[in-house]
Structure to design on (512 residues):
């Protein structure tokens, strides 16, 4: 494995700035890494070697010309296949979009291009971001770099696994109910769901528009902050975009990394822990809390009684919005067209045949659930009640912010489960997001940082939540925790994935 792929994004920038390496070299090292391990991991649906290398060349040229460059210029990145990439197939992990070539870039992708981050490829995901394991991808699952027989989380398992397997230092994800944070937790990486409206959703294929948010994935807190700073900020093309500058996330990460959390008030969400949570996950969580307390933060218990209804409310609101958003896949405007096997070829029969063939079972389940919840006579009982619960959850958060600056919990109740283990039990799969969903319902930001290895030797995640627009707190807490833990571990947790025996099944190219 080329040593360049082991560096953090921030370290890569230092070497690029001092001209010790070029972006072309760096990008090629990652393309080689993908070539050697992605057969086993399957983090990428598509790699874009020519595009990435051309962008890397442009980054090198810009640097050589003495141009004032954005911080991450020249550092390659992976992009979840739910974000539109101009001229490049974008499938959302679905058969129905097998052949969709967007005519425009998502705003966040445009920002990557303007900031000279070469795009290595598009990453695997559960179909239309519905799932917690990437097993609902129409193109086959992604494997967890820590144990190839296990899931990498979902829906953004591809982005998390790519970063965790050192195929990319950075990735973009999207988080509707946990799809950035839960994969980060189970792959030993860092993932952030920014404040709703803090990062543009223009060109993010919509799943549940009131919950969806784009965010960064990396192997450490500072790199995540640097990427957040590149993609964040107001976008007139997104009606829900906040008219705010990007919060001071990089400064906050640096503050945290220097151990500065003195006086920060931390609240432990009583409802998100204990029964139903794996013992080893809870142990790592408690140890992390103790470390933060040791640095001078204060810790107290906080109760959020409405959280117990969050999962139920989410699984009404999300399918309702998704059923409406996915109506656009009608065989006429995007993607594949399938003619009916028998009978007349009408608009309706083509639409039916295309959706029947193009959508997978989980997507169909949610369209049916959502359409039902929105139908006349049931709307108030289902969708209406769920919206009321949403208000209650927001009030729980408001009450909590009177007492504390951040709330914390384990990110995911368990470590990575086995591929296939929960595929036939949707409810068990949905429970993977019990701790991440309240955040989306309230529109607030959340981070997942590795807290160590649980009793089964697999990564566990520590989640921190902050009030809307206060994303900076997440990076401060995350940075402080990471610095304290890495002191103990002697380096980043992600690096340990390279040492474990399952990794030996991943054929390494002998390129250093
Ligand atoms: N796993 C959750 C779901 O299946 C969250 C998905 C997401 O955040 N996109 O809906």
């Amino acid at each position: 494995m080329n040593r360049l792929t082991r560096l953090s994004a921030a370290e890569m920038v230092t070497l690029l700035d001092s001209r010790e390496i070029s972006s072309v070299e760096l990008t090629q090292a990652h393309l080689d890494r993908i070539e050697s391990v992605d057969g086993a991991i399957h983090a990428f649906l598509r790699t874009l070697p020519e595009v990435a290398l051309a962008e890397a060349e442009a980054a090198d040229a810009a640097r050589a010309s003495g141009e004032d460059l954005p911080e991450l210029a020249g550092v390659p990145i992976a992009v979840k296949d739910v974000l539109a990439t101009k001229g490049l197939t974008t499938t959302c992990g679905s058969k129905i979009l097998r052949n969709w070539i967007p005519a425009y870039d998502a705003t966040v992708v445009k920002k990557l291009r303007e900031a000279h981050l070469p795009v290595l490829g598009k990453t695997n995901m559960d179909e239309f971001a519905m799932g917690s394991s990437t097993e609902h991808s129409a193109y086959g699952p992604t494997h967890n770099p820590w144990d190839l027989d296990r899931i990498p989380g979902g829906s953004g398992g591809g982005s998390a696994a790519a970063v965790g397997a050192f195929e990319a230092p950075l990735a973009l994800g999207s988080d509707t109910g946990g799809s950035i944070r839960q994969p980060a937790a189970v792959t030993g990486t860092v993932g952030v769901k920014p404040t709703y409206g803090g990062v543009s959703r223009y060109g993010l294929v919509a799943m549940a528009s009131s919950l969806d948010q784009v965010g960064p994935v990396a192997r450490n807190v500072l790199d995540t902050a640097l990427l957040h700073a590149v993609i964040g900020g107001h976008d007139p093309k997104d009606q829900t975009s906040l008219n705010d500058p990007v919060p001071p996330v990089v400064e906050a990460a640096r503050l945290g990394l220097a151990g500065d959390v003195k006086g920060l008030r931390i609240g432990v969400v009583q409802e998100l822990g204990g029964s139903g949570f794996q013992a080893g996950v809870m142990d790592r969580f408690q140890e992390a809390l103790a470390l933060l307390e040791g640095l001078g933060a204060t810790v107290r218990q906080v109760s959020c009684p409405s959280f117990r209804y969050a999962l139920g409310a989410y699984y009404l609101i999300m399918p309702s919005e998704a059923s409406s958003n996915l109506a656009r896949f009608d065989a006429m405007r995007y993607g594949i067209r399938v003619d009916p096997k028998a009978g007349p070829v009408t608009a309706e029969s083509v639409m039916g045949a295309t959706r029947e063939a193009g959508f997978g079972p989980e997507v169909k389940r949610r369209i049916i659930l959502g359409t039902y919840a929105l139908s006349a006579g049931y709307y108030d009982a289902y969708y209406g009640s769920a919206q009321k619960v949403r208000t209650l959850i927001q009030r729980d958060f408001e009450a909590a912010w009177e007492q504390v600056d951040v709330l914390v919990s384990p990110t995911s109740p368990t470590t990575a489960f086995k591929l296939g283990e929960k595929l036939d039990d949707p409810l068990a799969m949905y429970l993977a997001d019990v701790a991440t969903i309240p955040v989306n319902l309230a529109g607030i930001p959340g981070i997942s940082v590795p807290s160590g290895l649980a009793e089964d030797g697999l990564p566990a995640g520590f989640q921190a939540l902050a009030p809307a627009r206060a994303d900076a707190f997440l990076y401060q807490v995350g940075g402080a925790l990471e610095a304290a833990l890495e002191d103990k571990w002697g380096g980043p947790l992600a690096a340990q994935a390279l040492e474990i025996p399952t990794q030996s099944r991943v054929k390494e190219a002998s390129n250093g």
